[in-house]
Design brief:
Helix content of chain A: over 70%
Number of domains of chain A: 1
Strand content of chain A: under 5%
Radius of gyration of chain A: 18 Å
Number of strands of chain A: 0
Shape of chain A: globular
Structural class of chain A: mainly alpha
Oligomer: homotetramer
Order of helices and strands of chain A: HHHHHHHHH
Largest sheet of chain A: none
Distance between the termini of chain A: 20 Å
Amino acid sequence: MTKTRLEAFSDGVIAIIITIMVLEMKVPHEASWAALEKLWPVFVSYVFSFLMLGIYWGNHHHLIHSIKEVNGGVMWANLHLLFWLSLIPFATGWMGENHFEAKTVAVYALLLNLCGVAYYILLKVIQNCNRNNETFRHVLVKQSRKGMLSMVLYTVAIPAALLHAAIGGAITILIAIMWLLPDRNIEKAEREH
Amino acid sequence: MTKTRLEAFSDGVIAIIITIMVLEMKVPHEASWAALEKLWPVFVSYVFSFLMLGIYWGNHHHLIHSIKEVNGGVMWANLHLLFWLSLIPFATGWMGENHFEAKTVAVYALLLNLCGVAYYILLKVIQNCNRNNETFRHVLVKQSRKGMLSMVLYTVAIPAALLHAAIGGAITILIAIMWLLPDRNIEKAEREH
Amino acid sequence: MTKTRLEAFSDGVIAIIITIMVLEMKVPHEASWAALEKLWPVFVSYVFSFLMLGIYWGNHHHLIHSIKEVNGGVMWANLHLLFWLSLIPFATGWMGENHFEAKTVAVYALLLNLCGVAYYILLKVIQNCNRNNETFRHVLVKQSRKGMLSMVLYTVAIPAALLHAAIGGAITILIAIMWLLPDRNIEKAEREH
Amino acid sequence: MTKTRLEAFSDGVIAIIITIMVLEMKVPHEASWAALEKLWPVFVSYVFSFLMLGIYWGNHHHLIHSIKEVNGGVMWANLHLLFWLSLIPFATGWMGENHFEAKTVAVYALLLNLCGVAYYILLKVIQNCNRNNETFRHVLVKQSRKGMLSMVLYTVAIPAALLHAAIGGAITILIAIMWLLPDRNIEKAEREH
């Protein structure tokens, strides 16, 4: 029962974060193609952040779906994750408005890294109160493996972005692709369960 | 269970999109009828987009209500639909602020076309994991017939809007009316089921 | 099942409308009491609209709670209500920013009247598919009696506000008070049911 | 059943409040560290308010989870709480933009005090319709003890902030820490129940 409300609250916050981001795409005052064209960096960063938040929502969904027990620790670890996610519209807007300037890409990668760390902490906190849960163990193994790899790559992406924005950006895109590749095993485990 | 969360998340995002749009109607600083009157194109485009999002919500509701199975593919196809829907406030604001200028109507029709394509993809992805489901088949037949007709009409509306905004607008309104005409059959099938 | 999603969507939209309104209270750039004081009309109109939306949420809650059947007509009548409610932040902001100028109070009363009409339509549409439902009949009798009285009073409040803002405002406040007075009978009927 | 909708609505409003606050952190137009640095007071006040709203959400969750009966009085007491919570983004933005100027900290402490009073009223209203409920009694004892202490401390914090912003701020932070210290007993009582 408690789990339902945690899901509802997380869904609400992620849904709002994802939709609020579009407010950074300020409506141009003229009806020219040029005015629309000028928005492309804001648009591209919006698309990417939408994708990242979609990945988080999907993973969060799989994770919470696999567990039964939720306690105060899980609630706080979850709020901690939502806190960092809530900063994504800000970092997205800053990066978009400044046309992927090196510093903004580095800050964006740093923020995604912090989101990753927060997700990892959530995984560990959940692990503490969900021992002897086979479905969760499958999710945990997959997600913490990918999670750890992401954190390493983000940590590389931050200084890389400061050297050259495109390299930092490429690594960040690579991480997103890695998460998009499906983990058939998780779904299989869930179904068997 | 998974289905419930997909619904909750979609409802959340659509509810936010629909409500955020009203923020484009900037509160005028003077208390004159003239100041209010100047807002009419923003208001008209708001009304129309509200209607379109209402149609999407209704159809989405019928669609998800008719199915039992939800998998990773459905989640992503759903997110893809929500992505295009999330751009509606932007296109609405641009069209309204520029008094239905030809280019803005064309972009608006293009966006609605992309939403339609995304909805069609969602239908197809759901079809893959919901075979032998009579209720869904009814929804699918109705929605994909109307959906395909919409896509053809939108594709005509885009160049038509560039020639003359009013023609593009008229076609777009026509499509909305087509969706508003009730499909008694769907509800009947659901009830029988 | 369908009813649940109608509730969830309505809750979402009303929750967003209520919270978005606070964005009209622009944060003052100076830290002086004077800067805060200047906000009082915006604050007062926010308080009142919050109250009105709370009343609508409560009534909507009682209404939907009392019924079993929901169909396409109810969904559209509900969306129609949400449409007018979604304009409340705009009317609130306009009235607050212009210090309750006659025209803004009249428009505000007009909007509340339209919300009332939309609610009344919703009642009637629900009535069509919920015959032989004792609990709903109780809600219907109470809400349509108060509803009709409200519509009469709002219709008086609109020209009254144009003559003198305070009279229109007073009538509007009176209507809110009328709705706040509890209907013990409804809750009793629900409990007995 | 009614309880579920109260939870859903509260979750929605709190989720929106928490996420809307981030909009006060205006995206800087330049990509410099200096531009980012200038945002620190806005960021710090955002972090603190996020924490406070997280505490409220957690407590609200525990509270509603422990009860069975919900009536009209609870609905209004809950809306009253949500009203004061909805002003947190405003007070947060004002405090952040004015670099924790004495008056803004005092107003912030005053608002948190009013939120505390509203929560206390909610506790009392719930108590009236949930007698003979052992789980609720545990929550009540803990939360009203901490609640009363908070109200005393906030009442001290308001004039203290006017004398020196840092003292008022320190007391406010102290209260947050007090709420973060876990009440193992509540969770235990819930589990036993």
